Fold:
Amino acid sequence: MHQRILILDYGSQVTQLIARRVREAGAYCEIHPGDVGDDFINAQEGLQGIILSGSHASAYADDALKVPAAVFTRGVPVLGICYGMQAMALQLGGELEGSEQREFGYAEVRAHGHTALLNDIQDFVTPEGHGMLKVWMSHGDKVTALPPGFKLMASTASCAIAGMADEARRFYGVQFHPEVTHTVQGPAIISRFVQTICGCTGDWNMPDYVDEAIRNIREQVGDDEVVLGLSGGVDSSVAAALIHRAIGDQLTCVFVDHGLLRLDEGKQVMATFADNFGMKVIHVDASARFLSELAGVTDPEAKRKIIGKEFVHIFQDEASKLKNARWLAQGTIYPDVIESAAAKSGKATGIKSHHNVGGLPETLNLRLLEPLRELFKDEVRKLGVELGLPPGMVYRHPFPGPGLGVRILGEVKKEYADLLRRADAIFIEELNNTVDPATGKSWYELTSQAFTVFLPVKSVGVMGDSRTYEYVVALRAVETSDFMTADWAELPYALLKRVSGRIINEVRGINRVTYDVSSKPPATIEWE
Ligand code: XMP
Structure:
């Protein structure tokens, strides 16, 4: 049983960042809805502290979510962030004031007196000797009277009570957001809360986690056999490597090649998992079947549905041949768990649901094994490296389940997929090989997702002395932290020039290359 920090979510967009910072501070944590009951709080085992998130809502609105009373009677330290601080103030006898004006953005906060939370943490000192923090603020309401027992911990020019503390009860509130990267000392403040104030001893770390996860998998499945759908993406790859480390040949992976993979992807997956790790991998070449189902279909959603349905059929066929399989393993990660819980409770606003794996568990009658359920993406990557997966696989950009099917506009044909694969491989190779002198990183590392899109239109060109009439591709590269919004990447012209020159010269059939300069929103990252 790990020591744990409980994070209660009041609907902030950045609650997951709080969890990431807590994990980086070496403590296990979970996010739960802000209105869980007192019984839930009181039943938590190993509980070392509670963090109350921010919210877009107002703490004194009639329908505002109340912090469960048990949070303040359980006897563990509590940190309220923004709404969390306001709700704490209101419920413990302080006062709030609404404001039409939102304070949003960079602010400098002065720390008052010594508190266990902020002591010796500062960005600079004023000539008068005040310790100052550079922080990110986003709030309308503010606390105007401290609750009994609290003292002032921090203030800004426009917010007299920007932090408060009751050190006897170990309750702290900050109006600013220590979880976002703009708050320079944010990681130090969260580490201070987690380690010093809550007394977490760093029992959450990847090397220990590997041993623990392996023990858990062995305990869970015993002598049973497990089947896993391997896509070559980060999550299913890491899940496969972890389960294989735990139970070896009791695991069988099924790798379905739908003919819409990137250049040599099938070979790479087989080389890594079958040859190198010695895993049992069934390689199903279903490209002909997928392409024939997709013939004549141009509607993007119809294409997605066909690919999803075929995938389920093929996977089911293969899995049902494994007579002893009792478990279906999936690479579900913690953000998936949080999002589907939010979707079920109806509290999710604008969050997309994941449906790559829809329908599999019920129809197969297998029990679910999800060894990455507790991990964030960056932890999954660390685990992958720890398990010896190639860094190129672990740090790969995401690739959609329907693959090139959503990157070939309109009808999917083998001829188009072959051209696109070659063009895309050139783009990715050049992104990997071009280093940005300012950061020392490659442009592949500097972008969150980059790929090529096939446009089934022909345009006129000249090559040598002759006229050409060939296809067009679009290059797409974006920077994003959550894939919900994204900016197009400002790739260097020299890089774009090299990519375009190579594609037009090396891929006969394409005579024009364009660069997509649309951000999300209003465009999406994929074109379909
Ligand atoms: P959009 O195009 O919606 O994409 O801006 C956001 C992110 O989701 C990925 N994506 C998908 N992933 N199945 C997937 O597994 C899909 O059907 C799918 N559609 C989009 C996309 O690549 C991007 O990372």
